[in-house]
Amino acid sequence: MTEDTATIERDLAAVESALAGGTATHEDPLARELQELALQLRADVPRPEPSFAEELHERMEAAFPSPADSARGRAEAARARQQATLKRLSAPRAGRRFARRYVLPAAGVGVPLALIVGLIFAVGGPSGPSGGDDDAGAGGVAADHTANSAGGGAGEQAESLSGLPVEPSERSARRNSAALAPAEPVPRDGNFAPGQADRKIERSFSLELDVPLEDMARVADQVTAVTNRHGGFVLNSSVNAGREGGGGDFSLRIPSDRLRPALRDLAELAPVIRQSQEGRDVTRQHVTAKDRLQAARAERRSLLRRLEEADTDQEAEAIRQQLDLVAGEINGLRAQLRDLRLRTDYAVVNVSLLVAGDHDDNGGVGGSFDDAVDDAGGLLVGFAGVLIRVMALAVPLGLIALAAWLGTRGLRRRRRESALA
Amino acid sequence: MNCTYRRIKGVNEALAERMPVAAGTDTETFAALYERTFPRVYAYVASLLRDRAAAEDVTAQAFERAYRRRATYRKRRGSHEAWLFGIARNAALDELRRRKRRAHLEAEPEDTSALGADDHADLALRREAVRAAMTALDGRERDLIALKFSAGLSNSEIARVLEVSETAVGTRLHRTLTKLRKACHD
Predict the structure, then answer these.
(1) What pTM value is reported for the model?
(2) Domain containing B32 — which CATH number?
């Protein structure tokens, strides 16, 4: 139904006028009738009993004393509380009421909170700036197994899982990667060779050493010396120890059975900044090549027997041609096995010598203005990270709390209003 | 129906008054608010509950609650009266809900002190007609009528109490009065 706004405004103004003046004087009969009705309604209001008005006035003047302010009042209040408690406990719906008042709101806040916290932990929010996943992924491009650690600064060294001394600050990172650190790698799908006791593992290690510029040449010599002492060899190397900067890179081959002591000796040359290791199970390739070599040899023997028994020159020539093919295959397989054996008997060790300070991206106590600016930037970034994490928790919680508050308010209002329905 | 009521004049005077200072600041200003609104709060609650004894309890409860919460009053959320009647309304609705029934208005004691002898019969008839017509209204409409005529609130104050717009209050009020007028004729 649509109502004429002008009529409504006229009638309401007429009503207000009648209430203000106490008389119904409008010219329009309908409006005047509404005026009279309004006056009648206001004349008919209930009025309080004088005794009640007096009593309440006294209480108001005494600032509404609670019943607990007098001895009698205290006794009555205690009795009332006791009765209320008994009533609450004995009421059949007490449990439901308790659940509705306390358990449901608590669950309403607690469950979303648990979900948010779980989600944040699942996504990896609370992890540090260099999470374990990033570390694992950095060094294992084509490897079945990778274990990295990172850190910096000089200080007391500690034994790591692989036997290498690691900076104390790297302990936590190493702990994170402990699950990735076992010596035996997990074979990749398709290369798995079950039932083989003697597994063939191709290993490679990377070491970054923190070397002062003035010690660069000495440490480079010692790297070669350590390699030779453990029966290995230097595949290639480059060392730069000039005034404007320095560094060195070595690619070493060290016998697998001497790998651990060799790495330990290398790590003693200078503080280890970073290390990583990779392992690849090539047992399947080794077994396959070996089996194929045996088969080729058996075929060669068979062909030689047939050659001895050949009756015609043509037949002998055909067999010789087959023998050439088999011989080529045998040579190829032998080379493949030699290569595999070399790769598994000798581990690849890449050693990088870095000049102390050049790689220090965490900042130090002293340093230049640029270092201070970098440190300040780092601190700000860290603070922003913490802030974002806190916001990630606080904002959804705040929204939930706001929604819960609005919902509770609306519900309470609806319940109250239901009394008028 | 062209008569003057002394009671109405009294209420109008009260409506014209404004508190000089905030009600929430001290007991004395709360006392002023009490003096000004007590009869109207009672009238409103009694109109809603239709039970004199319950109305007294709820009125006392509302004032006590308002007194204890006087520090929570904020001027930007409406006048003192709107705030007080909001508390009274909540207390009355809680009482209604507790009782789980619609109370029927008790027979009001005749208030003849303000009327002349000639007016008595005519007024009684009109009063009965209006009371009968009031039964045609639902709870929300009766609440609106009580806020307007028993509590003596302005439309803007009613809007604050009901948390709706002033325009909506005017529209509802007009519709309810029209309905009541028709019911009086029936």
Answers:
(1) 0.47
(2) 1.10.1740.10
